[in-house]
Amino acid sequence: MATTGNYSIPSRTRSGLGKTATIVAVACMIGVLFAGSTIATPLYVIYKQQFGFSQITLTLIYAAWLAELIDDKERSRATVIATMANFTGLGVGALVAGMLAEYVAQPLRTPFVAYLAALVVVAALLAFARETVARPQGIAGISVRPRAGVPASIRSRFVAPAVTGFGAMALVAFFAALAPSVLALDLHETSHAVAGAIFLELAAVVALIIALTRTLSSRTAMLWSLGLMLPSLALLVTAQLTQSMAAMVAATAVCGMAAGLGYRGSLQVVNQIAPDDRRAEVISTYFICCFLGNALPVIGIGVLSSLTSSTVASLVFAVTIAAFAVIALVFGLKYEAT
């Protein structure tokens, strides 16, 4: 429903889209917005070559480009649609940018021009989408004061989902920020299109695993994720040591499964254990853990890569995340969500 001054205009007077079409338009909007956060993924190698960026510079650039848009509450179908659109956009953005960088002129400009064009199309669709709020609240009534915290009564149960979210996002961040460099340096694969395709594989697996495991309990999904992190990390290191593209593809698939189950399961567990009167604070703390997982490990890998080698850095990354996964498994098995 649109508003003009103090009056509300029924959505049907301005909307040419039905309910299903509006859902599709909003899903496209989510996908396009998140595609923007991975456009640079296949371009990092070009930045490194043209501007002389080191591995740590690239990872700091990625860490600064965090713009996650995650709802506070898990709402079954809506969350599945939003999350699938989220990760599909991440994957498609990386693939399209990689293909444009590989086969079209001006690789550092063309992907962003294409992205702006996609934004225009989505904005046009949303202009005809249905409004779901009858009386939108003014900006003055919105509090932007940050609130984060975990009540003492649930801290032991909070450890497992928080660490799971950290690990799941660390896996996604590794592929977004460092996989192109690993492909180029260790596997000698310099195609930007291939770099984009690898991240598309990861994002597609994450989206599919979330959609296909909707009936799986949140705690089971979280524990399966923690168990899958160990073989996924082993495959990732194996791919670098053996310079095997097949191992890299397999590692990407297993990492995607671990990240998808981990994000979906841990978020639901946090929602289950959070007291109603402090839910926003607990969820905010959980997302802080996710953001730290997105940034800190890849920055550490960048520093170690500059001081040693990418293989040594990946080994340290694998051991660190594996240790966190084991700790989370212990807490997850010991403490029930309810």
Spell out the key features of this protein.
338 residues, mainly alpha, Growth Hormone, Chain: A, two-stranded antiparallel sheet, globular, disordered N terminus
What does the model show?
71% of the residues lie in helices and 2% in strands. By secondary structure, it is mainly alpha-helical. It has a single domain (2-136, 150-334), classed as Growth Hormone, Chain: A. The chain has a two-stranded antiparallel sheet. β1 (2-4) and β2 (7-9) form a beta hairpin. The radius of gyration is 21 Å and the shape is globular. The model is unreliable at 1-15 and 54-76 (pLDDT under 50). InterPro entries: MFS, MFS_trans_sf, MFS_Transporters. Keywords: Cell membrane, Membrane, Transmembrane, Transmembrane helix, Transport. Its main location: membrane. It is found in: Cell membrane. The chain crosses the membrane at residues 21-45, 51-67, 79-100, 112-129, 158-179, 191-212, 221-239, 245-263, 283-305, 311-333.
